[in-house]
Write a structure and sequence with these properties.
Structural class: mainly beta
Largest sheet: 4 strands, antiparallel
Order of helices and strands: EEEE
Radius of gyration: 25 Å
Number of helices: 0
Strand content: 35-45%
Shape: elongated
Helix content: under 10%
Number of strands: 4
Length: 78
Amino acid sequence: MTGEEQPQTTVPPVRSVPVPVQLAPGADWRIEWCEACKAFTRLAGSMLLLTTSGVSTVGAWAWCEICDDPADQEDRRV
């Protein structure tokens, strides 16, 4: 300690502004082989994040018309 006090600086609070975003499937979808049901029944593509500052690829999606059919699913809740 030198005995000299440093002036305290206060940081003003940051106001958060909501940014509109939208998650959308990309136009690059393709048909793939489904390993579970052994058929070309899986659709896959990229996921896009749309914001006011641009578009970013944030992931991928996949769906099989046989394995992921909601009308043909068991009730797996316990």
